[in-house]
Write a structure and sequence with these properties.
The protein is an all-alpha fold. The chain has helices spanning 3-52, 54-67, 69-104.
Length: 105
């Protein structure tokens, strides 16, 4: 066989092996993405289920307020503190967030 043809056949075979390895890597990456998308779909479905039961959720929240007022106040205080911290630090972190967004894209 012509040495040039043999060299081309070997190169073709190496390229085919590389393509197969890349395909396997791509499929593995897509499986990870698919699992994340499945989790997002489940969360969206649960949120939709909560939207369909707003009166029930309101009644439960009202019952918790009546039965455990200290717990509600403690959670509300923490939420308020978290919100204020987010507002104060959020403005200071805007340049960092913008940099990270530019870096990620």
């Amino acid at each position: 066989m012509n040495p040039r043809l043999l060299e081309l056949a070997l190169k073709k075979q190496r390229l085919q092996f590389d393509a197969e390895r890349q395909r396997e890597t791509l499929v593995a990456g897509l499986e990870r993405i698919e699992s994340v998308l499945d989790a997002v779909d489940r969360a969206r479905d649960r949120a939709q289920g909560l939207r369909e039961h707003v009166p029930l959720l309101s009644a439960v929240a009202f019952a918790v307020v009546l039965l455990r007022p200290r717990l509600v106040l403690r959670v509300a205080r923490r939420a308020w503190f978290g919100w204020m911290l987010y507002r104060k630090l959020g403005r200071g972190l805007d340049p960092l967030i913008g940099f990270l967004r530019r870096f990620a894209s």
